[in-house]
Amino acid sequence: SYVLTQPPSVSVAPGQTARITCGGNNIGNKSVHWYQQKPGQAPVLVVYDDNDRPSGIPERFSGSNSGNTATLTISRVEDGDEADYYCQVWDSSTVFGTGTKVTVL
Amino acid sequence: QVQLVQSGAEVKKPGASVKVSCKASGYTFTNYGITWVRQAPGEGLEWMGWISGYNSNTNYAQKFQVRVTMTTDTSATTAYMEVRSLRFDDTAVYYCARGIGAPDGFDIWGQGTKVSVSS
């Protein structure tokens, strides 16, 4: 089965840029979606189809996807961005990444 | 507004069954499918399966093919997910989410339903 690997944690200072990677075999050939989940809340879609944002999601959230790695970039990080982030693709079934906890220092 | 509202928390004994509902509103139910995802305490997201709101076609994750059944009631714009033969490790928050279908993502999520399996 297809595996998506994310770093367990990323730490970033307010105002700086956070980059969260999602590794998978030839993931560049797939559409990647990203979700933000805060404690006790349901996930929220923040990026879909590699680099599109749903309405209401700040432009600070962007994505890229090439080769074996997709990346979610959060620019000008704010305290409210502290959350778990999951990537997701379709490969005969829906697959979620292992999740990354973003800590704002 | 577009929303999915799930049924309330459940406490079940091992071997029992649980049926979680997901009421959709604010959009045309038959234009989308519903996916079910669960999250065990302290763990990540686990995809369970998907059901079409148009024709009730289903696609289950292999792990859940035997114990899980997903259904819809189009007239009630509600999706259901039943898990049978519950085990302790089925303790989790169960989410429904809206999606058009593979390979698209899931843009609207329910609030989650906590299912606890305890003797």
Structure description:
The complex is a heterodimer of chains A (105) and B (119). Chain A is mainly β and 105 residues long. Chain A contains no helices and 9 strands. Chain A has strands at 9-12, 18-23, 33-37, 44-47, 61-66, 69-74, 83-90, 94-96, 100-104. In chain A, the strands form 2 sheets. In chain A, strands 1, 3, 4, 7, 8 and 9 form a 6-stranded mixed beta sheet that branches. The radius of gyration of chain A is 13 Å and the shape is globular. The mean pLDDT of chain A is 97. Chain B is mainly beta. In chain B, strands 2, 4, 5, 6, 9, 10 and 11 form a 7-stranded mixed beta sheet that branches. In chain B, strands 1-3-8-7 form a 4-stranded antiparallel beta sheet, with no helix packed on it. In chain B, a hairpin with an 8-residue loop joins strand 9 and strand 10 (108-109). Chain B is globular and about 40 Å long. Classes of the chains: A mainly beta (105), B mainly beta (119).
Short note summarizing the structure:
Chain A is an all-beta fold and 105 residues long.
Question: Strands, helices and their partners?
Answer:
The complex is a heterodimer of chains A (105) and B (119).
Chain A: E1 9-12, E2 18-23, E3 33-37, E4 44-47, E5 61-66, E6 69-74, E7 83-90, E8 94-96, E9 100-104
Parallel strand pairs in A: 1-9
Antiparallel strand pairs in A: 2-6, 3-4, 3-7, 5-6, 7-8, 7-9
Chain B: E1 3-6, E2 10-12, E3 18-25, E4 33-39, E5 46-52, E6 58-60, E7 68-73, E8 78-83, E9 92-99, E10 108-109, E11 113-117
Parallel strand pairs in B: 2-11
Antiparallel strand pairs in B: 1-3, 3-8, 4-5, 4-9, 5-6, 7-8, 9-10, 9-11
Task: Name its key features.
heterodimer, A: 105 residues, mainly beta, 6-stranded mixed sheet, 3-stranded antiparallel sheet, 9 strands, B: 119 residues, 7-stranded mixed sheet, 4-stranded antiparallel sheet
| Backbone shape of chain A | globular
Mean pLDDT of chain A: 97
Helix and strand content put the structural class of chain A at: mainly beta
Portion of residues within helices of chain B: under 10%
C-alpha Rg of chain A, in Å? Answer: 13 Å
Low-pLDDT segments, ≥5 res of chain A: none
Query: Major β-sheet of chain A, in short?
Result: 6 strands, mixed
